[in-house]
Amino acid sequence: MSQTPSEGRSLWFEQALTPGDWARDVRVTVADGVIASVETGVAQAPNDEAHGVALPGMPNVHSHAFQRAMAGLTEARGPGGDAGDNFWTWRQLMYRFLDRGGPEEIEAITALAFCDMLEGGFTRCAEFHYLHNDPAGRAYADPAELTARIVLAAETTGIALTLLPVFYAHSQFGGAEPNHGQRRFITDVDGFADLVARGRRLTAGLPDAVVGVAPHSLRAVTPEELAAMPGLAGDGPIHIHVAEQTKEVDDCLAWSGARPVEWLLADAPVDQRWCLIHSTHVTETEWRGVAKAGAVVGLCPLTEANLGDGIFPARDFVENGGRFGIGTDSNIQIGVADELRMLEYSQRLALRARGVMADSARSTGRALFDRALSGGQQATGAKAGLSVGMPADIVELNTSGIGFAGRSGDAVLDSWIFGGERAIRSVWRRGRKVVADGRHIARDAIEARYRKALSVVLG
């Protein structure tokens, strides 16, 4: 998809969620991909494009795009018999999935995931990119071959990219040798530094691109290797999987005498640049420490439910100043409303209450959306919102459906998130419409490449 600057255009919306609050009769003027002006309470002019309800595009704080092709293929009971499946049996299936698939297939699968994200209301993706080597575990002639394919998929779809090359060197706490299933992920510190530098060069021409780093987990890095990561990140974000599973917590305790988040807070420079992905199994002392450090927790409620991870204590965390963003992780289902709904419902099930994430000023849907937007901006290193100077990343809801009858303001968000309406009609990324009538403008070509890629990957 061309990334040349967009021409000036004027979009008029019946309602828009601006940084201050909801506004009616809103004209957003776009020039060179950036919001040049926002006028409220104005009549539609002859040269305005008229639309329904405008929302700022949401950042996706955590994605493994290649796993999009696995959706629906891991739902049979594994070798555990009566013990059933768990995260660790799922991981073995994921490793086997990587036995095939080269650069062309990875790019095609990633493009479909990014296409789905835009259709689902995400306008930026933080891609936690840990697939570096070929199916045999050898480095490509260009070590950043697969990084380049992620960038090409972002160009094809138009999504904004926060590229997070992943450092992965070990199979278990304490620097254990990697296993065969991890062969496509493995690098060393020098090779990783080169990957990060190449990623910065590859994204130099991609509008609004951000590059950070992602030490995969405390299982996959030693303390010495982790200490090198903030310097390699520069001004970019630092993401890490942590405390997703109880086994991980137990293994960390056996290795260090501390729980994973406890160890990070004591032994790593956790601050506002950090995004702790999942953090499912945390004590009150730990989540209070994360909030105090100003880090973001990256929640992926659909994946966490699919993998049986558990439930993060989101209500207590946010009521004590904690910040979160939402991600799609394994990309089994992709949509802003879907992740926010699952987040709220998981809290309701855990606490046996309703309206858990609401507050005295905002409805449940509005509070969820606002917090995820704010935390997502911080975690992806990028600004967003319907205000002057921001990239024109806008999602339009079509509220003509019966599920929106009589709704305005926060009730629109509540009806979209909890009412089941598939309402996204248009999406603009830097002022260029990439989704029209609910469908990405390049979906036919993207799907054709994806089908071809699956014939290789699934054989």
UniProtKB/TrEMBL annotation:
Its cofactor is Zn(2+). GO terms for molecular function: formimidoylglutamate deiminase activity. Its EC number is 3.5.3.13. It comes from the Bacteria. Residues 14-52 form the Formimidoylglutamate deiminase N-terminal domain. Residues 54-399 form the Amidohydrolase-related domain. The keyword Amino-acid biosynthesis does not apply. Keywords: Hydrolase, Metal-binding, Zinc. PANTHER family: AMIDOHYDROLASE-RELATED DOMAIN-CONTAINING PROTEIN, GUANINE DEAMINASE. This is Formimidoylglutamate deiminase. It comes from Brevundimonas staleyi. The lineage of its organism: Bacteria, Pseudomonadati, Pseudomonadota, Alphaproteobacteria, Caulobacterales.
